[in-house]
Design brief:
It is a single chain. By secondary structure, the chain is mainly alpha-helical. The chain is about 65% helix and about 5% strand. The protein has 23 helices and eight strands. The protein has helices at about 1-50, 60-80, 90-100, 105-120, 130-145, 150-170, 170-185, 190-210, 230-260, 265-280, 290-295, 305-320, 330-350, 360-375, 380-390, 395-415, 420-425, 445, 460-470, 490-495, 500, 520-530, 555-570, and strands at about 55, 60, 455, 475-480, 485-490, 515, 535-540, 550-555. The strands form three sheets. It has a three-stranded mixed sheet with strand order 3-4-5. The chain has a three-stranded mixed sheet with strand order 6-7-8. β6 (about 515), α22 (about 520-530) and β7 (about 535-540) form a beta-alpha-beta unit. α5 (about 130-145) packs antiparallel against α6, α9 crosses α16 (about 395-415) and α12 runs antiparallel to α13 (about 330-350). The radius of gyration is 27 Å and the shape is globular.
């Protein structure tokens, strides 16, 4: 008993110590990154812009070329490492679920450089996703240096993500919850402890060095009347639809750019962002957009301008991300939700002047609704607004708008999010909103790599003999090139005459069947086995060749489930 107690204490001492260190490196990475963005921003907007300034009918045409100049600098970096495209959160999800928490060392450095240049030159993306990625990368490097177990690597990589997000907003609890909702798709009591510690430490490091984490001053007098709750419900519905449509639009536009497959896509995207930003240079279209958010929350912008800015940010961010730049969607989604939320509140205040509607409350609830729909992380926003306002006054409104926005977007996105949609393009299917177990294991890990199979010309009687020899009840059928043609088993030869059993098995392959690829998850394999009522799932090299490389059975899935449970919890 004493030995067990000592072992328990030592284990948790190691876990908590490393989670604190992960918080420190995540916080330091966030600080370094933010300072680098300030430096690059000053170069482009204070040194380069005056040189290329050209006034035309009240517009400075020089703004058009700033993001394009940054794009030219970034091209060789993105070309060398295409994985840097986007916000980095999908890569963290992939690393934790499929790569045992391992992120290549070069990614953190290149992500810092590429994203700071993109944002500093005016690219309309956020820094929060990249900050989370940088924190996760540094924590991953730490775990690799000390040769920690895969379970520890996955947990501490998630800790680094939490530390970066927490330090960005001065919201340690919502930073921890974001990591849990996005990576683990839920909150687990054991894992929550080290992740919260990392988030608190990361936040403390940021505050210690920068004195202030979040640049937007949030009004502390926000509130609402109970009769307004139906309005927040309606806003959640509307913003959930908008979030789902926006997520699909971004990847639709990404497909358009990728079909061109040109390095100059970055420059074209930059020129588009520059043109939009030129029309609204002082309202946060360039960069993360916090200056525009503060004006909206403070009630300084009219309805028409709010809607125009929301639409402009949506287009500018889409162009930046879809053209292949490195940058996040976190801040732009907050910006878009804030603009449309404030406009929604102002319209209601005109329609119902006697209710005393506060548009600032709708700004924050709209921000929460849109973000929750886009990322499928509603609890993060509920906690974040509470931490930012330092009050529970808005809690009912934010809970209503966030959950309704989350559920509405979930219906249209079919369980995907802005982060998992990127992984789906790579053939990796993960569903949000529920704790993941089988999703954390690939079929490659659990498949039998030396499967028993039969050729298409094999007589059915030989299959009956094979069942008796191996104890298996079904087998994949292949042609001479090992291309999977179907599945044959006990059901096919029971109650058959000797004459029928002499026929080749290809004569009996008349049922639809499922196959899976190497990069699919155990969850995907299980769903296919259930849907097609199969006991065995052939695993193929790719969908084009359908070359057999292994098989997965229901028994393999059950074993994988318990293996997944062990891998999720540190205890």
């Amino acid at each position: 008993m004493k030995w067990e107690t000592t072992k328990y204490i030592k284990k948790w001492a190691v876990v908590l110590s490393f989670s604190a260190v992960a918080g420190i490196v995540g916080g330091l990475g966030a600080v370094l990154f933010r300072e680098l963005i300030k430096y690059t921003h000053s170069i482009f907007f204070e040194m380069v812009l005056p040189i290329i300034t050209f006034e035309f009918h009240g517009y400075n045409l020089g703004y058009i070329f700033l993001p394009a100049l940054g794009s030219i600098i970034v091209i060789p970096i993105i070309k060398k490492c295409p994985e840097l495209k986007g916000n980095g959160i999908p890569e963290v999800i992939e690393a934790v679920i499929f790569k045992e928490g391992i992120i290549k060392k070069k990614f953190a450095v290149l992500k810092v450089i590429a994203t700071s240049i993109t944002i500093g030159s005016g690219g309309s993306v956020g820094r929060e996703g990249p900050i989370g990625f940088i924190g996760a990368s540094l924590a991953s490097m730490l775990t690799q240096k000390f040769k920690l177990s895969p379970e520890m690597r996955k947990l501490l990589t998630t800790c680094g993500l939490a530390a970066g997000i927490a330090g960005t907003f001065n919201t340690p609890l919502s930073g921890a919850m974001f990591a849990l909702e996005v990576i683990y798709m839920g909150a687990f009591s054991i894992n929550l402890v080290p992740i919260v510690i990392a988030a608190v430490v990361g936040n403390a490091v940021t505050l210690l060095m920068l004195k202030r984490a979040f640049e937007v001053s949030i009004p502390l007098n926000t509130g609402h009347a109970l009769v307004e709750l139906p309005f927040f419900f309606a806003m959640g519905l509307l913003f959930g639809v908008l979030a789902a449509a926006y997520a699909k639009f971004i990847y639709l536009l990404t497909d358009v750019f990728e079909k061109q497959a040109r390095a100059w896509n970055l420059v074209l995207g930059g020129l588009g962002v520059g043109l939009i930003g030129m029309l609204f240079p002082k309202y946060g279209i360039f960069g993360v957009g916090y200056s525009g958010m503060e004006m909206a929350v403070s009630g300084l912008l009219p309805i028409g301008l709010l809607i125009s800015l929301g639409l402009a940010k949506m287009l500018a961010t889409s162009l930046t991300i879809s053209s292949g730049h490195s940058g996040g969607i976190f801040a732009p989604s907050l910006y878009i939700g804030t603009m449309f939320g404030t406009a929604f509140g102002l319209i209601l205040s005109v329609l119902f002047p006697d209710l005393g509607i506060n548009p600032s409350s709708y700004a924050l609830a709209g921000m929460a609704a849109f973000f929750s729909g886009l990322t499928q992380a509603p609890i993060t926003q509920i906690l974040m607004v509470t931490e930012l306002t330092k009050s529970y006054a808005l809690l009912p409104a934010v809970m209503t708008s966030s959950t309704v926005g989350f559920l509405t977007a979930r219906f249209f996105l079919k369980g995907s999010s802005i982060y998992t949609l990127k992984l789906e393009k790579k053939g990796i299917h993960i569903r949000t909103g529920k704790p993941i177990v089988l999703e954390m294991i690939s079929v490659k890990e659990i498949m039998n790599k030396e499967p028993v199979f039969v050729y298409e010309d094999t007589p059915l009687i030989d299959v009956e003999h094979l069942v008796a020899e191996t104890g298996h009840d079904c087998f994949p059928v292949v042609d001479k090139d090992f291309r999977v043609l179907g599945i044959i088993g006990v059901k096919d030869f029971l109650k058959r005459s000797s004459r029928i059993k002499a026929l080749p098995v290809k004569r009996f392959l008349n049922r639809p069947f499922a196959i899976a690829c190497l990069n699919e998850t155990a969850q995907s394999a299980f769903e296919k086995l259930v849907e097609y009522d199969q006991n065995l799932l052939p695993i193929v090299e790719d969908l084009e060749s359908k070359k057999l490389v292994g098989v997965v059975t229901k028994r393999d899935i059950y074993k994988a489930y318990y293996k997944g449970l062990e891998g999720m919890y540190i205890e």
